[in-house]
Model the fold of this input.
Amino acid sequence: MPKPIPTAEPFRIKVVEPVKLTTREERAEKIAAAGFNLFGLKSTEVYIDLLTDSGTSAMSDNQWAGMMLGDEAYAGSKNYFNLERTVQEITGFRYMLPTHQGRAAENLLLYVMLAPGQFVPNNMHFDTTKAHVLHKGGIPRDFVVPEAYDPTSQYPFKGDMDVARLDAFLAEHANDVPLVMLTVTCNSGGGQPVSLKNIRAVSEVAKKYGKPFFIDACRFAENAYFIKQREPSYQAKTIAEIVAEMFSYADGCTMSSKKDALVNIGGFLAVNDHALYQAASGLGVLFEGFPTYGGLAGRDMEAMARGLREVLEEDYLAYRIGQVKYLGDKLLEYGVPIIEPVGGHAVYLDAKRFLPHIPQHHFPAQALGVELFVEGGVRGVEIGTNLAGRNPKTGEHDFPALEMLRLTIPRRVYTNRHMDVIAVACANVYERRAAVTGLRYTYEAPILRHFTARFERT
Ligand code: F0G
Done:
Protein backbone atom coordinates (compact mmCIF):
# COMPACT_ATOMS: atom_id res chain seq x y z
CA MET A 1 0.00 0.00 0.00
CA PRO A 2 1.47 3.40 -0.91
CA LYS A 3 1.71 5.72 2.09
CA PRO A 4 -0.56 8.81 2.07
CA ILE A 5 1.56 11.85 1.22
CA PRO A 6 1.42 14.37 4.07
CA THR A 7 0.92 18.04 3.30
CA ALA A 8 3.75 20.42 4.11
CA GLU A 9 3.79 24.19 4.64
CA PRO A 10 2.28 25.83 1.51
CA PHE A 11 5.28 28.17 1.08
CA ARG A 12 9.03 28.24 0.67
CA ILE A 13 11.13 30.30 3.09
CA LYS A 14 12.99 33.11 1.33
CA VAL A 15 14.17 35.29 4.21
CA VAL A 16 15.20 34.05 7.65
CA GLU A 17 15.63 35.71 11.02
CA PRO A 18 18.11 33.92 13.29
CA VAL A 19 16.96 32.95 16.80
CA LYS A 20 19.25 31.81 19.57
CA LEU A 21 18.79 29.14 22.21
CA THR A 22 20.17 30.28 25.56
CA THR A 23 21.13 28.03 28.47
CA ARG A 24 18.75 27.17 31.29
CA GLU A 25 20.96 29.14 33.72
CA GLU A 26 20.82 32.24 31.50
CA ARG A 27 17.05 31.98 31.23
CA ALA A 28 16.60 31.54 34.98
CA GLU A 29 18.68 34.67 35.50
CA LYS A 30 16.85 36.73 32.83
CA ILE A 31 13.36 35.91 34.08
CA ALA A 32 14.33 36.65 37.69
CA ALA A 33 15.76 40.02 36.53
CA ALA A 34 12.45 40.68 34.73
CA GLY A 35 10.57 40.20 38.02
CA PHE A 36 9.12 36.89 36.72
CA ASN A 37 7.11 38.88 34.17
CA LEU A 38 7.31 37.58 30.60
CA PHE A 39 6.59 41.09 29.26
CA GLY A 40 9.86 42.22 30.89
CA LEU A 41 12.04 40.00 28.68
CA LYS A 42 13.90 41.26 25.63
CA SER A 43 12.72 39.43 22.52
CA THR A 44 16.34 38.43 21.85
CA GLU A 45 16.30 36.48 25.12
CA VAL A 46 13.40 34.34 23.84
CA TYR A 47 13.91 31.24 21.67
CA ILE A 48 10.30 30.67 20.53
CA ASP A 49 8.04 33.66 21.07
CA LEU A 50 4.37 32.78 21.55
CA LEU A 51 3.33 35.97 23.35
CA THR A 52 0.91 36.87 20.58
CA ASP A 53 -0.22 36.21 17.02
CA SER A 54 -0.76 39.97 16.66
CA GLY A 55 1.59 41.81 14.30
CA THR A 56 3.95 38.83 14.31
CA SER A 57 3.02 37.30 10.93
CA ALA A 58 5.55 36.75 8.16
CA MET A 59 4.47 38.69 5.08
CA SER A 60 4.55 37.07 1.63
CA ASP A 61 6.76 38.14 -1.26
CA ASN A 62 3.62 39.60 -2.84
CA GLN A 63 2.99 41.75 0.24
CA TRP A 64 6.62 42.90 0.35
CA ALA A 65 6.40 43.77 -3.34
CA GLY A 66 3.32 45.84 -2.51
CA MET A 67 5.36 47.73 0.11
CA MET A 68 7.44 49.12 -2.74
CA LEU A 69 4.31 50.56 -4.35
CA GLY A 70 3.46 52.82 -1.43
CA ASP A 71 1.72 56.03 -2.52
CA GLU A 72 2.45 58.31 0.42
CA ALA A 73 0.09 61.10 -0.61
CA TYR A 74 -1.57 62.71 2.42
CA ALA A 75 -4.96 62.55 0.69
CA GLY A 76 -6.30 60.07 -1.86
CA SER A 77 -3.46 57.53 -1.89
CA LYS A 78 -4.00 54.82 -4.51
CA ASN A 79 -3.24 52.20 -1.83
CA TYR A 80 -6.21 53.50 0.16
CA PHE A 81 -8.49 52.93 -2.83
CA ASN A 82 -7.13 49.41 -3.31
CA LEU A 83 -7.72 48.66 0.36
CA GLU A 84 -11.21 50.17 0.25
CA ARG A 85 -12.12 48.06 -2.80
CA THR A 86 -10.69 44.92 -1.15
CA VAL A 87 -12.60 45.44 2.10
CA GLN A 88 -15.81 46.18 0.18
CA GLU A 89 -15.41 43.02 -1.90
CA ILE A 90 -14.58 40.74 1.01
CA THR A 91 -16.95 42.09 3.67
CA GLY A 92 -19.67 43.73 1.61
CA PHE A 93 -19.60 46.80 3.91
CA ARG A 94 -19.92 50.15 2.13
CA TYR A 95 -17.51 52.41 4.00
CA MET A 96 -14.00 51.66 5.29
CA LEU A 97 -11.85 53.76 7.57
CA PRO A 98 -8.23 52.65 8.03
CA THR A 99 -6.85 52.83 11.59
CA HIS A 100 -3.43 52.19 13.06
CA GLN A 101 -4.65 48.97 14.73
CA GLY A 102 -7.76 47.20 15.98
CA ARG A 103 -8.28 49.06 19.23
CA ALA A 104 -8.31 52.35 17.33
CA ALA A 105 -11.28 51.10 15.32
CA GLU A 106 -12.97 50.10 18.60
CA ASN A 107 -12.25 53.55 19.99
CA LEU A 108 -13.90 55.31 17.02
CA LEU A 109 -16.94 53.02 16.92
CA LEU A 110 -17.61 53.22 20.66
CA TYR A 111 -16.89 56.95 20.84
CA VAL A 112 -19.66 57.54 18.33
CA MET A 113 -22.18 54.95 19.51
CA LEU A 114 -21.83 54.52 23.27
CA ALA A 115 -23.08 56.84 26.02
CA PRO A 116 -22.17 56.55 29.71
CA GLY A 117 -24.24 53.98 31.62
CA GLN A 118 -25.13 51.94 28.50
CA PHE A 119 -24.44 48.21 28.10
CA VAL A 120 -22.49 46.47 25.34
CA PRO A 121 -23.32 42.76 24.92
CA ASN A 122 -20.62 40.56 23.32
CA ASN A 123 -19.92 36.82 23.35
CA MET A 124 -16.69 37.63 25.24
CA HIS A 125 -15.05 41.04 25.14
CA PHE A 126 -11.38 41.08 24.30
CA ASP A 127 -9.45 43.24 26.84
CA THR A 128 -9.08 46.26 24.57
CA THR A 129 -12.77 46.21 23.63
CA LYS A 130 -13.72 45.91 27.29
CA ALA A 131 -11.31 48.75 28.16
CA HIS A 132 -12.80 51.00 25.46
CA VAL A 133 -16.35 50.28 26.64
CA LEU A 134 -15.33 51.15 30.22
CA HIS A 135 -13.42 54.22 29.02
CA LYS A 136 -16.63 55.62 27.51
CA GLY A 137 -18.52 54.94 30.75
CA GLY A 138 -20.22 51.84 29.34
CA ILE A 139 -20.75 48.41 30.89
CA PRO A 140 -19.41 45.35 29.01
CA ARG A 141 -21.51 42.17 29.32
CA ASP A 142 -20.41 38.70 28.14
CA PHE A 143 -23.05 36.23 26.92
CA VAL A 144 -20.97 33.35 25.57
CA VAL A 145 -22.48 29.84 25.75
CA PRO A 146 -21.78 28.00 29.05
CA GLU A 147 -19.69 25.34 27.23
CA ALA A 148 -16.99 28.02 26.81
CA TYR A 149 -16.19 27.78 30.52
CA ASP A 150 -15.81 23.97 30.50
CA PRO A 151 -12.20 23.26 29.39
CA THR A 152 -12.91 19.70 28.23
CA SER A 153 -16.29 20.21 26.54
CA GLN A 154 -15.92 19.17 22.88
CA TYR A 155 -18.70 21.54 21.73
CA PRO A 156 -17.59 22.58 18.22
CA PHE A 157 -18.50 26.29 18.49
CA LYS A 158 -17.53 27.37 21.98
CA GLY A 159 -17.41 30.99 20.81
CA ASP A 160 -21.19 31.05 20.19
CA MET A 161 -23.32 33.67 21.88
CA ASP A 162 -25.99 32.35 24.25
CA VAL A 163 -28.79 33.79 22.14
CA ALA A 164 -31.53 33.13 24.70
CA ARG A 165 -29.63 35.09 27.36
CA LEU A 166 -28.94 37.90 24.90
CA ASP A 167 -32.63 38.04 24.02
CA ALA A 168 -33.66 38.08 27.69
CA PHE A 169 -31.13 40.83 28.44
CA LEU A 170 -32.35 42.97 25.54
CA ALA A 171 -35.97 42.42 26.56
CA GLU A 172 -35.12 44.09 29.85
CA HIS A 173 -32.45 46.63 28.87
CA ALA A 174 -33.00 47.42 25.17
CA ASN A 175 -33.22 51.15 25.88
CA ASP A 176 -29.74 51.10 27.36
CA VAL A 177 -28.03 49.05 24.65
CA PRO A 178 -26.67 51.00 21.64
CA LEU A 179 -25.17 48.01 19.76
CA VAL A 180 -24.49 44.27 19.92
CA MET A 181 -20.98 42.92 19.29
CA LEU A 182 -19.63 39.45 18.49
CA THR A 183 -15.95 38.47 18.54
CA VAL A 184 -14.83 35.91 15.90
CA THR A 185 -12.98 33.81 16.81
CA CYS A 186 -13.50 34.26 20.53
CA ASN A 187 -9.98 35.04 21.74
CA SER A 188 -10.71 35.34 25.47
CA GLY A 189 -12.46 31.96 25.42
CA GLY A 190 -9.58 30.03 23.82
CA GLY A 191 -9.68 31.12 20.16
CA GLN A 192 -12.97 29.27 19.74
CA PRO A 193 -15.11 29.73 16.62
CA VAL A 194 -18.64 31.08 16.24
CA SER A 195 -20.99 29.18 13.91
CA LEU A 196 -22.78 30.83 11.02
CA LYS A 197 -26.05 29.65 12.51
CA ASN A 198 -25.16 31.60 15.65
CA ILE A 199 -24.07 34.73 13.76
CA ARG A 200 -27.42 34.67 11.95
CA ALA A 201 -29.32 34.15 15.21
CA VAL A 202 -27.47 37.02 16.95
CA SER A 203 -28.28 39.32 14.06
CA GLU A 204 -31.96 38.33 14.23
CA VAL A 205 -32.13 39.12 17.94
CA ALA A 206 -30.33 42.43 17.39
CA LYS A 207 -32.79 43.30 14.61
CA LYS A 208 -35.78 42.34 16.75
CA TYR A 209 -34.75 45.11 19.17
CA GLY A 210 -33.61 47.50 16.42
CA LYS A 211 -29.92 47.35 17.50
CA PRO A 212 -26.99 47.58 15.10
CA PHE A 213 -24.76 44.50 15.12
CA PHE A 214 -20.96 44.66 14.80
CA ILE A 215 -18.40 41.90 14.39
CA ASP A 216 -14.94 42.08 15.99
CA ALA A 217 -13.38 40.49 12.92
CA CYS A 218 -9.68 40.06 13.85
CA ARG A 219 -9.66 36.34 13.04
CA PHE A 220 -12.54 36.21 10.54
CA ALA A 221 -10.82 33.86 8.07
CA GLU A 222 -9.81 31.37 10.76
CA ASN A 223 -13.42 31.43 11.97
CA ALA A 224 -14.66 30.78 8.42
CA TYR A 225 -12.33 27.78 8.11
CA PHE A 226 -13.84 26.23 11.24
CA ILE A 227 -17.34 26.84 9.83
CA LYS A 228 -16.34 25.00 6.68
CA GLN A 229 -14.95 22.10 8.72
CA ARG A 230 -17.64 21.83 11.37
CA GLU A 231 -20.94 23.19 10.05
CA PRO A 232 -22.25 20.56 7.64
CA SER A 233 -24.14 22.84 5.21
CA TYR A 234 -20.97 24.89 4.51
CA GLN A 235 -18.60 22.12 3.45
CA ALA A 236 -18.99 22.82 -0.25
CA LYS A 237 -18.65 26.62 0.06
CA THR A 238 -15.43 28.55 -0.50
CA ILE A 239 -13.89 30.51 2.38
CA ALA A 240 -14.71 33.75 0.54
CA GLU A 241 -18.37 32.72 0.32
CA ILE A 242 -18.52 31.84 4.01
CA VAL A 243 -16.80 35.11 4.95
CA ALA A 244 -19.25 37.07 2.79
CA GLU A 245 -22.18 35.39 4.51
CA MET A 246 -20.72 36.01 7.99
CA PHE A 247 -20.45 39.74 7.32
CA SER A 248 -23.78 39.93 5.46
CA TYR A 249 -25.64 39.64 8.79
CA ALA A 250 -23.78 42.55 10.40
CA ASP A 251 -23.88 46.34 10.12
CA GLY A 252 -20.13 46.70 10.30
CA CYS A 253 -16.93 45.40 11.83
CA THR A 254 -13.82 46.42 13.70
CA MET A 255 -10.62 44.80 12.46
CA SER A 256 -7.12 44.31 13.79
CA SER A 257 -5.22 43.64 10.57
CA LYS A 258 -2.31 42.44 12.73
CA LYS A 259 -4.09 39.07 12.78
CA ASP A 260 -5.98 37.89 9.70
CA ALA A 261 -4.70 40.54 7.29
CA LEU A 262 -1.20 39.10 7.77
CA VAL A 263 0.50 42.45 8.40
CA ASN A 264 2.63 43.81 11.22
CA ILE A 265 0.51 46.92 11.83
CA GLY A 266 -2.90 48.25 10.80
CA GLY A 267 -6.64 47.91 11.21
CA PHE A 268 -9.93 49.34 10.00
CA LEU A 269 -13.52 50.13 10.82
CA ALA A 270 -16.04 49.12 8.15
CA VAL A 271 -19.70 50.16 8.28
CA ASN A 272 -22.81 50.40 6.12
CA ASP A 273 -24.29 53.51 7.70
CA HIS A 274 -23.10 56.75 6.10
CA ALA A 275 -23.83 58.97 9.09
CA LEU A 276 -21.83 56.63 11.34
CA TYR A 277 -18.96 56.64 8.82
CA GLN A 278 -19.00 60.44 8.74
CA ALA A 279 -18.96 60.76 12.51
CA ALA A 280 -16.19 58.17 12.91
CA SER A 281 -14.03 59.65 10.16
CA GLY A 282 -14.40 63.10 11.70
CA LEU A 283 -13.12 61.77 15.03
CA GLY A 284 -10.55 59.72 13.13
CA VAL A 285 -8.89 62.92 11.95
CA LEU A 286 -8.31 63.73 15.60
CA PHE A 287 -7.00 60.32 16.69
CA GLU A 288 -5.70 58.59 13.57
CA GLY A 289 -5.25 61.00 10.68
CA PHE A 290 -6.97 61.94 7.43
CA PRO A 291 -9.56 59.29 6.43
CA THR A 292 -7.53 58.02 3.46
CA TYR A 293 -4.57 56.98 5.59
CA GLY A 294 -5.83 56.58 9.18
CA GLY A 295 -2.46 56.42 10.92
CA LEU A 296 -0.88 54.17 8.30
CA ALA A 297 1.66 54.64 5.54
CA GLY A 298 0.40 53.99 2.01
CA ARG A 299 2.71 50.97 1.81
CA ASP A 300 1.10 49.48 4.95
CA MET A 301 -2.35 49.78 3.37
CA GLU A 302 -1.07 48.02 0.23
CA ALA A 303 0.37 45.11 2.27
CA MET A 304 -2.93 44.92 4.17
CA ALA A 305 -5.04 44.77 0.99
CA ARG A 306 -2.87 41.95 -0.36
CA GLY A 307 -2.88 40.09 2.98
CA LEU A 308 -6.67 40.21 3.17
CA ARG A 309 -6.88 38.29 -0.10
CA GLU A 310 -4.13 35.80 0.80
CA VAL A 311 -5.72 34.86 4.10
CA LEU A 312 -8.77 33.49 2.25
CA GLU A 313 -6.71 30.79 0.53
CA GLU A 314 -7.82 27.44 1.83
CA ASP A 315 -4.44 25.71 1.69
CA TYR A 316 -3.01 28.51 3.84
CA LEU A 317 -5.83 28.12 6.40
CA ALA A 318 -5.52 24.31 6.42
CA TYR A 319 -1.82 24.72 7.21
CA ARG A 320 -2.45 27.45 9.77
CA ILE A 321 -5.22 25.78 11.75
CA GLY A 322 -3.47 22.43 11.21
CA GLN A 323 -0.26 23.66 12.82
CA VAL A 324 -2.06 24.88 15.95
CA LYS A 325 -3.87 21.52 16.13
CA TYR A 326 -0.57 19.67 15.63
CA LEU A 327 0.78 21.33 18.77
CA GLY A 328 -2.45 20.72 20.70
CA ASP A 329 -2.53 17.03 19.74
CA LYS A 330 1.10 16.57 20.85
CA LEU A 331 0.29 18.11 24.21
CA LEU A 332 -2.74 15.85 24.65
CA GLU A 333 -0.53 12.85 23.80
CA TYR A 334 1.81 13.90 26.61
CA GLY A 335 -1.15 14.22 28.97
CA VAL A 336 -0.77 18.00 29.33
CA PRO A 337 -4.13 19.63 30.22
CA ILE A 338 -5.28 22.12 27.58
CA ILE A 339 -8.51 23.85 26.62
CA GLU A 340 -10.30 21.55 24.18
CA PRO A 341 -10.98 21.52 21.32
CA VAL A 342 -7.89 23.40 20.16
CA GLY A 343 -8.68 26.95 18.97
CA GLY A 344 -7.63 28.77 15.83
CA HIS A 345 -4.62 30.86 16.78
CA ALA A 346 -3.32 29.37 20.01
CA VAL A 347 -3.18 26.43 22.35
CA TYR A 348 -4.26 27.38 25.85
CA LEU A 349 -2.74 25.42 28.74
CA ASP A 350 -5.24 24.90 31.56
CA ALA A 351 -3.26 26.05 34.60
CA LYS A 352 -5.93 25.04 37.12
CA ARG A 353 -5.54 21.39 36.10
CA PHE A 354 -1.79 21.71 35.36
CA LEU A 355 -0.87 23.16 38.79
CA PRO A 356 -3.84 22.30 41.05
CA HIS A 357 -1.72 22.84 44.19
CA ILE A 358 -1.22 26.58 43.45
CA PRO A 359 -4.20 28.71 44.58
CA GLN A 360 -5.45 31.33 42.11
CA HIS A 361 -4.15 34.22 44.25
CA HIS A 362 -0.64 32.83 43.69
CA PHE A 363 -1.03 33.09 39.90
CA PRO A 364 -0.71 29.50 38.62
CA ALA A 365 -0.80 30.47 34.92
CA GLN A 366 1.90 33.10 35.43
CA ALA A 367 4.03 30.57 37.36
CA LEU A 368 3.56 28.10 34.50
CA GLY A 369 4.69 30.75 31.99
CA VAL A 370 7.85 31.34 34.01
CA GLU A 371 8.65 27.60 34.19
CA LEU A 372 8.05 27.06 30.46
CA PHE A 373 10.44 29.90 29.66
CA VAL A 374 13.13 28.48 31.94
CA GLU A 375 12.58 24.98 30.54
CA GLY A 376 12.68 25.69 26.80
CA GLY A 377 13.05 29.41 26.11
CA VAL A 378 9.37 29.47 25.10
CA ARG A 379 7.41 32.63 25.95
CA GLY A 380 3.64 32.29 26.34
CA VAL A 381 1.24 34.82 27.83
CA GLU A 382 -0.83 34.59 31.00
CA ILE A 383 -4.60 34.86 30.54
CA GLY A 384 -5.62 34.51 34.14
CA THR A 385 -5.75 36.34 37.44
CA ASN A 386 -2.81 38.65 36.74
CA LEU A 387 -4.45 39.86 33.50
CA ALA A 388 -7.95 40.05 35.00
CA GLY A 389 -7.03 42.79 37.52
CA ARG A 390 -9.04 43.83 40.54
CA ASN A 391 -12.74 44.43 41.02
CA PRO A 392 -13.05 48.25 41.19
CA LYS A 393 -15.72 48.03 43.91
CA THR A 394 -14.23 45.44 46.29
CA GLY A 395 -10.53 45.84 45.44
CA GLU A 396 -10.22 42.03 45.39
CA HIS A 397 -8.68 40.04 42.53
CA ASP A 398 -11.29 39.49 39.80
CA PHE A 399 -10.68 35.71 39.65
CA PRO A 400 -11.51 34.47 36.13
CA ALA A 401 -13.27 31.14 35.54
CA LEU A 402 -10.40 29.98 33.33
CA GLU A 403 -6.76 30.30 34.37
CA MET A 404 -4.70 29.85 31.20
CA LEU A 405 -1.27 30.17 29.63
CA ARG A 406 -1.79 31.01 25.96
CA LEU A 407 0.74 29.65 23.48
CA THR A 408 -0.09 31.92 20.55
CA ILE A 409 1.24 30.80 17.18
CA PRO A 410 2.42 33.57 14.82
CA ARG A 411 1.31 33.05 11.21
CA ARG A 412 3.80 31.49 8.76
CA VAL A 413 6.69 32.02 11.21
CA TYR A 414 7.58 28.76 12.99
CA THR A 415 7.86 25.23 11.62
CA ASN A 416 6.38 22.06 13.10
CA ARG A 417 9.85 21.30 14.47
CA HIS A 418 9.39 24.37 16.67
CA MET A 419 6.03 22.91 17.73
CA ASP A 420 7.85 19.70 18.77
CA VAL A 421 10.23 21.72 20.95
CA ILE A 422 7.33 23.57 22.59
CA ALA A 423 5.45 20.33 23.28
CA VAL A 424 8.45 18.62 24.89
CA ALA A 425 9.19 21.69 27.03
CA CYS A 426 5.57 21.68 28.26
CA ALA A 427 5.72 17.93 28.94
CA ASN A 428 8.92 18.36 30.97
CA VAL A 429 7.36 21.08 33.12
CA TYR A 430 4.29 18.86 33.54
CA GLU A 431 6.49 16.04 34.79
CA ARG A 432 8.03 18.20 37.50
CA ARG A 433 4.82 20.15 38.22
CA ALA A 434 4.62 19.18 41.90
CA ALA A 435 7.79 21.19 42.57
CA VAL A 436 6.53 24.38 40.84
CA THR A 437 5.69 27.15 43.30
CA GLY A 438 3.34 30.13 42.98
CA LEU A 439 4.15 33.83 42.78
CA ARG A 440 3.25 36.96 44.72
CA TYR A 441 3.50 40.63 43.75
CA THR A 442 6.43 42.81 44.70
CA TYR A 443 5.03 45.57 42.46
CA GLU A 444 1.49 46.02 41.13
CA ALA A 445 0.44 48.99 38.97
CA PRO A 446 -3.10 50.33 39.55
CA ILE A 447 -4.20 49.77 35.91
CA LEU A 448 -3.18 47.16 33.31
CA ARG A 449 -1.01 45.61 35.99
CA HIS A 450 0.00 42.56 33.95
CA PHE A 451 2.36 44.53 31.70
CA THR A 452 4.58 45.90 34.46
CA ALA A 453 3.94 43.66 37.50
CA ARG A 454 6.92 42.20 39.33
CA PHE A 455 6.77 39.01 41.37
CA GLU A 456 8.71 36.83 43.77
CA ARG A 457 8.34 33.11 44.27
CA THR A 458 6.17 32.04 47.23
N1 F0G B 1 -10.06 42.21 19.36
C1 F0G B 1 -9.51 40.99 19.56
C2 F0G B 1 -10.36 39.78 19.58
C3 F0G B 1 -8.12 40.90 19.73
O1 F0G B 1 -7.57 39.70 19.92
C4 F0G B 1 -7.33 42.08 19.70
C5 F0G B 1 -5.89 42.02 19.93
C6 F0G B 1 -7.97 43.30 19.47
C7 F0G B 1 -9.34 43.33 19.31
C8 F0G B 1 -7.21 44.60 19.43
O2 F0G B 1 -6.44 44.71 18.29
O3 F0G B 1 -4.08 44.79 19.14
O4 F0G B 1 -4.68 45.58 16.84
O5 F0G B 1 -5.35 46.89 18.80
N2 F0G B 1 -5.31 41.00 20.38
C9 F0G B 1 -3.88 40.80 20.61
C10 F0G B 1 -3.65 39.50 21.33
C11 F0G B 1 -3.18 41.96 21.24
O6 F0G B 1 -2.50 39.25 21.71
O7 F0G B 1 -4.59 38.72 21.48
P1 F0G B 1 -5.06 45.55 18.27
